[in-house]
Fold these 2 entries.
Entry 1:
Amino acid sequence: MSTPDTPTAAPTEAEITDPTAVPADVRPADLQDERLIASQGFGGWASATWGRLRSGDLGSLPVVVGLVLIWGVFYALEPAFLSSRNLVNLSLQMVAVGTIAIGVVLVLLLGEIDLSIGSMSGLAAAILAVLFVARETSVIIAVLAALGAGALVGLLYGTLFNRFGVPSFVITLAGLLALLGLQLRVLGNQGTINLPFESSLVRFASQQFLPVWLAYVLAVLAPAVYALSAWRRNARRAEAGLSTTPLSRLALRALGLAAILIIVVAVLNRDRGVSYMFLAFLVLVVIMDLAIRRTTWGRSVLAIGGNVEAARRAGINVKRIYLSVFTLCSTFAALGGIFAASRLASANQSSGGGDTNLNAIAAAVIGGTSLFGGRGSAYSALLGILVIQSISNGLDLLAVESNVKFMVTGAVLLLAVIIDSLSRRSRAAHGRA
Amino acid sequence: MTTTSPASVLSMTGVSKRFGAVQALKDIEFGVDSGEVVALVGDNGAGKSTLVKCIAGVYPPDDGHVVFDNSPVTITSPAQAQELGIATVFQDLALCDNLDVVSNLYLGSEVVRNRALDEVTMEKESWRLLRELSAKIPSVRIPVASLSGGQRQTVAIARSLLGKPKVVMLDEPTAALGVAQTAEVLNLVERLRENGLGVILISHNMSDVMAVADRVVVLRLGRNNGEFRVSDTNVQEIIAAITGATTNAVSARAARKAPQEEQA
């Protein structure tokens, strides 16, 4: 933020004619081009953001606006919707499908799809219940077996995709049916297996909440870590002669994040609090976000989603990336199935059936991950599932029948896809594809 | 410049490639020395791009011997070609539109620090490299989709130089460029030669070829159809070889000898 004190020589012509011009060598290396519209201060930031939105680079704005609308409508119809008790319920309900949606985000980033996530989660639930209850193995073995099944299925998808080049939606559509069959077979003629309420899994999913103090500490710690890493990045950029984010904007962001988190924790703590399972989901989202944005693997995923051929020619092992992403997606689906079985304390023939599949895909798309590949973030799983689950939860509170629920969720998904397509077209027209 | 050939960095003999019933390349002889610019010319469908892709590891050749840096190699993948030190700028640029300039420059060879991408170093180096090429790119943090054709070409060429290659292949580098940008790319090609790199230049533009190449290799219908040193040939001769007006290299040579002897 300090002005470098270069020895001031005789003023150049530019300085005489244009008093605001900065000598080129003083500006950071990335801001020297005279065509760059420098966005300085809050006004510059606001106008740059406005321009980005107008050109179709909507980011997460539609979903945030949508969420506010949905919450407003449900609150007007049924004030209990925004009660702490219901919001805690919401935080518990969204974890299972939200976890599945993280995997969906990954495959969508590649421009592929996995339609069998619902069946996979059901299969994982069945494996968990059979091993844990019927065979009486330890929790760890049952969970690992369920996750392992997910990984195996994903490996199979990836191998089939790489080897035969079959479109992923066909492979996984076949998987949808095959896994459902496997789920019924694993469950056998029992049909429904209940997990004991006192088991660690069920307690984890519905009864264990963070101590109040710990929740607040985390709500303050997370923005602090964010601010620290941003500050260190700034320092490195300054050292390298690159532009830095103004400290005021950094502070604003960190404080905004802290405010949001503290409000969330305060509201949830008025009832049972922040559940460990919900925290686990948030941690998974953050980890996957870092993996996508900050690692070579994530960069490869985005590159393949943007242009497979370019990625291949750049020397990226495209097949390995496909394999890893399909594996991760199925594993996340299995984890989602485990969370669902733990929360409902049972696994049955309809676990992972119904709208699980579509809700997970809808969550990823509604959250802002493009169906066309190469664009999106792990946070869209969080935002999207928040929207989907809010609708589902609100309609339940209003005692609307499930036929209406399905139609409403379908309409919201359609809306999200239309927004995605429109903003994609607009981005192309404004050269931001 | 000495007349003795410097160490050959890449040489290929008897290279063939078929696509189904189409013989795209047949018994191709081709090579480049370090510090030499070889122009690869030919009509559409002559096999230039196929040969480039064979060298770059995109299509492994069906047959033939490749010697790189005095040792025989088989190039089976783009990654292996890059490791050997063969960098390619493809005609269809092969950039990821959704990624920014820095990501595209370092795609496949990202700088990693503490197991995370080192964006700062990559951005700094990107600016250094782009300035070196006197590239006119306003920001390296915008998606490549929003750049002009010339800027995209510049990014693609800059990208090829990151891995410190020994051979750089440029497939139609000036096809989409304006006058000044073409001159810049040609300057760039000369700078590559001065740095001791072997440059393979594929072009339809004879004035570009005559301006920078040391040697011209002509392909016609998937076969070698003549080889010329730029210092002792002219555009007509090369065009004749490209179009097949002279049926083979021997008659081409004979035709060339005659007027030269008259001049002598």
Entry 2:
Amino acid sequence: MSRNAREHLYESELLVHYPVVYNFLLRMTAQESDAADLTQETFVRAYLKIDHYEAGTNGRAWLFCLARNLFINDYRKRKRRGEQELDERAAYQYRDVDSPMAGFADLRIAGALDRDFSDQIMKAMTFLSDRQRAIVLMADLYDFAEKEIAEAMEMPLNTVKSVTRRSRIALIKQLQSYAESTFGIVNTRNLG
Amino acid sequence: MYNECNPSPNGTPSRPGHRLPEVVEHQSTTGEHDPPSTYAETDLASFKVFLKRNMRNQAPPAGLLDDIRARIAGIRTRK
């Protein structure tokens, strides 16, 4: 690839995604300055590795893969988390054999969704592991297909499906507790 | 449907006659049972809208794009 073609590819298919990469990293780090630093590193790495990117494919998923690797391999090693992360075995308790969305249906039917949950969602996200949080963000905030998530997370498709399901249930369970204690919305189901 | 027996979940005393909102089951308008997958799809779509509304994208810091371009220019110069 010529230098001009490489520069054009970088600008048109990769750099255009910098706002969404920044926001993804902001949700992962919860720190604006850390998210900005990691975004810079992600795009430097993208430039250096651009020969590994195939033009016309999914630039956003490729960038999320780089960003996720930087976050887990570099950022997490530097900053050990103080809080307890939800472990996969604990998350398994949140399974719901009928429908992973049953708990959310309760909130929807009870009319709780018009309320402001923004702070509570951020708090609930901290109870998810890094992997779970990244997958929920990609699946539900950025509308990645499961196959794209599998590529970005470098995980088998079936694992992505099960982690997505458990992560949603864990998140909804946190939000249900909040809805019950704050708005008095009584949940009649038992997810866990 | 209302909840007479449940005490106030946040510990505050319930007022007499005060009805707590409670979840009601979906009633089919056709009189038939809708397929379960329909509920699941509706709920997933609502869940995504709910997350997007509560997790709006923030504008990146003003100088971020310039910083990235400066880093790339530095790499080009060194090559």
